[in-house]
Every structure is written in structure tokens, then in C-alpha cells.
Amino acid sequence: MPYTSRLKRTYAAVAFASWLMLVGNILLCININVSLDTNSVYSHVNNLLTVIFMFSVFLSQQNESDHIKGTDFMAYLWKLFVQAGLAAYVCVVMHVGYLVVARHWFPDSKYLLNIIYSINFALFIYFLARAFYTWKKLILFQKSKSLHTEWRWFEWLMYGSLLLTLFNISYITYIFVPLLCLLVLYIFFVSVNLRWVAYLTLTKKWRSILLLIVLLVSAVLFGRYFQVLAGNPNLVADHFEHPFVLLMLFFVFIYAFISLLVAVFSLPTSSVFEQKRDDLMNIQKLSQSIQQGQDESQVFDMLFDSTTKATGADAAWIEISDNEEDVSHMLNLDLAKISRIRQILKNLNLDHVDYINNNLELNNYFRELGLPYKSLLVVALKSSKRSFGMLYLLKDIDHGFDRESINTVRTYTNQTILTIENLRLIEDSLQNERYKEELKIASAVQDSLIPKSFPSDSWFEVSTYAQPAKEVGGDFYDFLMLSESRIAIIIGDVSGKGVSAAFHMAQMKGIFHALMQDDLDPVVFMTKANSALSRCLERTSFITSSLYIIDYKMQGLMFARAGHCHTLYYNSMTEETFYFVTEGLGLGIIRDASYAKRIHKLYYDYNPGDVMVIYTDGVTEARSPAQEEYGEDRLKDMLQQTYHLEAEDIKYAIVNDLKTFIGDAHLHDDQTLMVVKFRNVQPKIQM
């Protein structure tokens, strides 16, 4: 028998034995007509047995499970109601039965009243213990070290209130009342940890609301029962007045009530989060289309379904350029209306370009057309080399396409274009020698993934360098403007080489652009990216990465690393050059919820003139002909010598030193380097 099971049974046996002795002590007091209100031996025995019983019941539930497994929170709520919440209704039935029996057969029977009261008290304590540790599991879902410490103190303080009962100390004094008030405030502080609610779907939220309501009713029924009997002269011992019991009931009720409120008020936004989740899943499906052996028509099917659902379009169609602009998909439109809309766009010189009009009624041509639609979004399906077609979306309301929906559509179309290009490259490779064509495909994919230039602005300058060890590399970097004053920069290294590495780079690029549309915190991004990659990454593969978010308004940056190289930094104020050493584990290594504990965020206020060097391990692990590593120290020395130069010159100095160091030696790993220098004069921003 496992140790925890033996321990639980031991506590349960102690609880049962102490309860039997407690009942025996009460019956003995009735028999000899002794009141427990006096400071007698029986009163002290009653307090001791009560404390032992309550403590044993809680400890037996504590050892059942310390951690929540998975995200099936409904199972925990349902289990709590079935195994403990129903006890309140049993309590009501027993009380009604007692009233009937007392009225007809045993009026004013102290024995019967106190026995039923003791049974209901045992059921009540069991309910509180089950609820207390069920709430603990929910509160500590995705726990942090600080939250774990807060809960530990809370648990000790709650158990500490048992001492008041043990020593028969009145808590209604000027000493203990303020302490108990502070503990009540602590209960509210602990009860706001409700991360689990965000993981419920709309349907599960409705079910959780119903379960929380019946659990609240259970708590109220128990409380009302003991409140009604509090003034009964035939009751020997009133266990409900103990501070531990009152505090536990208050916590159980408050956490259930706050959870209910959060679940109710989050109902209107549940569909939004589910839509975001569906968007991410659709992007993953597009990324996996190549590996699943799908053809272009299936990719266009996914694009059409995904964009119409994401935007709520009332009408739509797709034109494919390869088929002389044939309409391949249609929704609530016929070819005649499509032809007239295309002719209007052509007359306005808007044919084959991105176009948005959120009020078609202001345009005479569209108004004369008599369509019921008021908003139009046109997105060109094209890469830097060729055009694949056009996507048209219409809605029957004005201003139907906002910034978020447009960004979502463009993310879908970009991923579709990349997927189709990869499909076509694969199709071409099958006609030639497999090995050479695979390298050519992966090289083209990798080239399309890496941006050729970064946005130029007045706050910082960026210079990049990338050198694959072979025709195909596993390094990548990218950026995304989050707002006018915020930019996200990502760098990474995919394990392995060749075509599979290039495909994983495509998946990571799609995930980056999809998730960062919501301007996520770096730690949240890494956690969600790990979850997404866990579904499509081979078990033997992983990705190291670092995500940086530069905020011009706040003049700071925050970042998180997932197993990637440490960031090299020069501080112009202190004139120090150092590495940011932070914890982080590669994406895809751990594929469950515990990964969130492996990632940490760092925030740093940058100064004008600061320099940040981001790189992959191909730089520091490069070897000379004598098999010596370039190393972090040499890279640090180069930055110390060149920090006063422009970003481009710093990069060239490092690269030239690296090439001199390597000499004629073979390049074993891809080399990627990015230099970010914050300009000496930072523009003033209106806050």
C-alpha cells in the first residue's frame, strides 16, 4: 500500500475514533447532567476531542492529492458536490426526520438531538475539508513560488485558530478580534486566484456555474442548520461557535462565491477566447498541411473556412490566379454579383491590391449595385515572387472589419501563402534528385522566413548577420510591431537540419505572428508556443528561442529565454558589459502544464547608447583550426571594444573577428547574430 494511502487511512481512523469518543463524552454529560459551558474536565475533554477530530479529517483530505492534474476542472467540482456537497441535503433530511420523530414519539429527547447533531457536525467538517483542499488545487493551478508560500502561510494560520478551541480561549476579545479580521482579509486575498476559470469553455462555464450554486447552497444549508440549533437548551455542545469552523465556512463560501461571479461575468468574453484558440489551431493546421499530405485545394478550403469564421463574414469568395482568376469558393454570392464587384474595383484601379472599405454606401458605384453589404475587405494572396489569388470578404454592417480581424486575416493568408509555396517546392523536388531538391526547398523556405530588413525608426538601430553551416540552416529571427511604440523581436534555433528544420521554422513563425497579435507577455507566449508546438513537433525535436519586447514609451525591454543563448548587453550609464543570465527550457522538451514553471521574465530599463547582442550558439561555439571555441568571453571583449560604433559597424567587427578566428576551419553550425543599439538621443513621446 502506498505511503500516502496508509497515512490517509490512519488519519481517517483517528478521526472516526475521536468522533466516537466525542459523542460518548456528550452522552455521558447528559447522563450525569453536567454542562459543558463550565470550566470542567468534561469541557476540556470535549475541546480536545473536537480539535483532534477536525484536524484528523482535514489531514486525511490533505493527503489525497496535492496537485491538480490536467484541466478537467469540472470533474473536481462534480466530485466535491457528489462526495461532500450532498451531505448538506442529508443533514436537512435528518433534521426534518428528527422534528417528526420528536413531535410524535420522543419529545425533548436530549440523546436523539445530540446524536443527530454530532452526525451532522461530522458531515459538515467532512464537507469543509473536501471543499478546502479542492479550492487549494484550483488556487495553486499554475502556481508560482510566491503563491505557494502564500498558501502555506494561509493554511498554517487557519490551523492555528484551532488553538483557541483547544485552550478554550474566547476569541471575542480586543486581542484576537483584530487578528481574526486580518485573517478574513487574507481569505479574500487568497480567493482572487482564479486562473482555472479562464480555461473553461462556454459550455463548461455554464456547468461550473450550476455546480458552484449548489455548493453555495450546501454551505448555506449547513450554516443555517447549526445557526438554528445554536440556542437550543437541549444541545450539550455547540461546535459551530469555534473560530476554526467559522473561518473555514467563510473561506469555502467566499471562494465559491467569487468563482461564481468571475464565471458569470466572463461568459460574454468566452466566445472571444474560444475564437482565438480556434484561430491558433487553424494556423497550426495550415502549418501541418505539408506533413499531412494535403494539396492546395484543401489548403484554400481551410483558408476560406478560417477567415469567414474569424471575421464573421456574411459573404466571401476566393479567386485563384493559376486558373485565370476562376472563383474557387463562394459564400452567399453568385457569379454575376462577383463579376460586378470586380469590375467596380477595376474601374477604381483597386484590382489585385489589398483594399478595405468599411462603409460601401459612401461609394456611388457600390451604392448603385444595391448589395446588402456595407463593409468589404480584399486581401491579395501573393509572395515576393508571385501572386496566388485574391480573398474577398463582405459584411452586412458598416465598420465590420476592425484592426484585430484584419490582422487575423493577414496572418491566415501569410501562412497559407507560405504553405502553398512549400507544397509547390515539394512537388518540384519530387521531379528531381531527392537530396538536392530537399536542400533547395528548405533553403527557399528558410529564406522566406527570415525578414530582409527591420523597421527603421528614431529609437534604435538593428543590424543582422546569418550564415548557415550548410545549404539549409536551423536558425531564424523575426519581428512584429505590436503598437506604435512596442516591437517584439524573436530569435531561435531549431534542432536538426534540412527540410524538417525549415518546416518547424515555418510553424514557429506562424505561431509567433498568431500569438503576438494579442501582445502577450513573453512568459505567456513561451508557454502557449510550447503547448502549440507539442502537438506538431516530433518527440526528438525541440526549439530554443528568446523573445524580446522593446517599449519605447517606457524606455525598457522585457524578455524571456527558452533554452537559448544568454543575451550580451552593454550599459552606457555604468559602462559595463555583461550577460543576462536567466532560466529557461527549450520549447518541446517538456510537453505538459509544468513547462510554465521553467520560464522566467526579465525587465530592464535601457539607456541611450546601450547595445544588445543577440546570437545563436553557432557563434560562441565556432572552432578555430586548433579546435578552440570562440567563446562568450571573446564575444564580450569585442563588444567592449566596439560599443561606441554604429550597430552595423559593431556587427561587422564581430563577424570579421569571428571569420579570422575560424580561418579555414569547417563551419559546424549555423551562425546568426543581431546587434541592437539604442540611439544616443531618444525621441520624446507624448505619454
UniProtKB/TrEMBL annotation:
Keyword Methyltransferase belongs to the record: no
InterPro entries, per database record: Bact_Sigma-Reg, GAF-like_dom_sf, PPM-type-like_dom_sf, PPM-type_phosphatase-like_dom
TM helices/strands, residue ranges: 12-34, 40-59, 80-100, 112-135, 156-177, 209-226, 246-267
Keywords: Hydrolase, Membrane, Transmembrane, Transmembrane helix
Species, as recorded: Adhaeribacter terrigena
Domain PPM-type phosphatase: 457-678
The protein's name in its UniProt record: PP2C family protein-serine/threonine phosphatase
Phylogenetic classification of the source organism: Bacteria, Pseudomonadati, Bacteroidota, Cytophagia, Cytophagales
